[in-house]
Amino acid sequence: EFSSNRIQELEQQVVKDSEYCDSQDMSEKSELIASRDHLQGLALNFAISVLKLKMKCNKRSKEQRKLFTQLATQKEKVSMLEQCLDEVKTDRKTLAGKNL
């Protein structure tokens, strides 16, 4: 048989235990929220880094395309100059032949 004092002690202990569990739950919840926020921050930083890297790659690709275009243009010019030089050589030979 429980005495009323013992029942009150048990009720108080139940209330204390319940309050303790609630505070632990809140503490764990706060830690989980902080961890989640930290991970979201890391994910955002990672996404920003990837985006910056993509932008750099796109910029380099544009620069490379521009350089390839310039190279092709220069090759065309060299080819035209070689053709002109061949024509000049041919003309010289023709003129030299006529002068003889």
| Tally of helical runs | 1
Q: Using the alpha-carbon principal axes, give the shape.
A: rod-shaped
Order of helices and strands: H
| Structural class based on helices, strands and sheet pairing | mainly alpha
Low-confidence stretches: none
Q: Would you count the extended β strands for me?
A: 0
Task: Explain how this protein is built.
With 100 residues, the chain is mostly helical. The chain contains 1 helix and no strands. The protein has one helix at 4-99. The protein is rod-shaped, with a radius of gyration of 43 Å. 0% of the residues are buried. The model has no long low-confidence stretch (mean pLDDT 89).
Topology:
Elements: H1 4-99
Compact description:
This protein is mainly α. Helix content is 96%, strand content 0%. The longest helix has 96 residues, at 4-99.
Features:
single chain; 100 residues; mainly alpha
